[in-house]
Specification:
- The chain has two helices and 15 strands.
- The chain has about 240 residues and is mainly beta.
- It has one domain.
- The strands form three sheets. Strands 1, 3, 6, 7, 8, 11, 12 and 13 form an eight-stranded antiparallel β-sheet that branches. Strands 9-10-2-15-14 form a five-stranded antiparallel β-sheet. The chain has a two-stranded antiparallel sheet with strand order 4-5.
- It is globular, with a radius of gyration of 17 Å.
- The chain starts with a strand and ends with a strand.
- The N terminus is likely disordered.
């Protein structure tokens, strides 16, 4: 059953042999599907909540997405929430979906769809096609989704031409208070780069990563290694 949530509910080379495989319906012969493989790497181990002093509370790691029918959308993509007013506490700008890692949930990774433009309501719609389970000491998150999981209506999916992406890390999803620790695409120390996001075509095979993008995400712009995003990638693969 799909649950609607108000408030917080809690990539490089082809990923071969990923753990945590999820079943996905087979497609008809000759049908082209689009697979999106995401990868994000932190400077230090991901905080799973099992660390000494963590109290069972993990950090928050999210990939926020916006599907677009334009090749080069001029509107803003997903951007991090970094200060009050907190809104939903994790993403602002324009987003249609997000994929969250949560080791306390029944599945480590869940796909969510926003159901209002204010980004205050969303619904869980499934889990990635494949993902790599995160174990203590790991510093990478990797998963793969099919475009049909994000837009199940074939006619609407056929209109999608690009995807805007941001990789978000944070120590909490606040609704009160005045600050939180976070990282996202761009150098968080520079106000001009806080609202950085990726735009990638989904109409052709392609690899988008930090190196090809000119190292837009630097190391040490966040002092906490578990939050310091240092590398990322999105691979788009069209397949029959």
């Amino acid at each position: 059953m799909t649950q609607v949530k108000n408030g917080w509910a809690l990539m490089g080379l082809l990923l071969v042999g990923l753990g945590g495989c999820a079943k996905f319906p087979a497609t008809d012969a000759g049908t082209v599907t689009t697979r999106l493989t995401f990868k994000m790497r932190m400077d230090g181990p991901i905080r799973t909540g099992t660390e000494s002093g963590a109290g069972g509370v993990p950090y928050v790691y999210i990939v926020a997405l916006r599907l677009s029918q334009d090749d080069n959308p001029t509107t803003e993509g997903p951007i991090p929430v970094i200060a009050p007013p907190w809104g939903n506490g994790f993403v602002a700008g324009n987003a249609t979906h997000y994929i969250a890692w949560d080791p306390t949930a029944s599945s480590e990774f869940t796909i969510y769809r926003f159901i209002n433009p204010e980004l205050q309501q969303w619904a869980a719609t499934g889990i990635p096609v494949t993902f790599r389970p995160v174990t203590p000491g790991d510093n990478q998150i990797e998963f793969e989704v099919d475009l049909a999981q994000l837009e199940p209506n074939p006619d609407e999916a056929a209109k999608v031409r690009s995807i805007q992406v941001n990789f978000l890390t944070m120590d909490s999803v606040p609704q009160t208070g005045s600050s939180k620790e976070w990282d996202a695409l761009g150098d968080r120390r520079l106000p001009s780069e806080i609202n950085t996001f990726l735009t990638a075509t989904v109409r052709a095979n392609g690899l988008f990563n930090n190196q090809r993008a000119g190292e837009i995400e630097p190391r040490l712009d966040q002092s906490d290694p578990a939050l310091d995003l240092v590398d990322w990638s999105l691979e788009v693969r069209l397949r029959n």
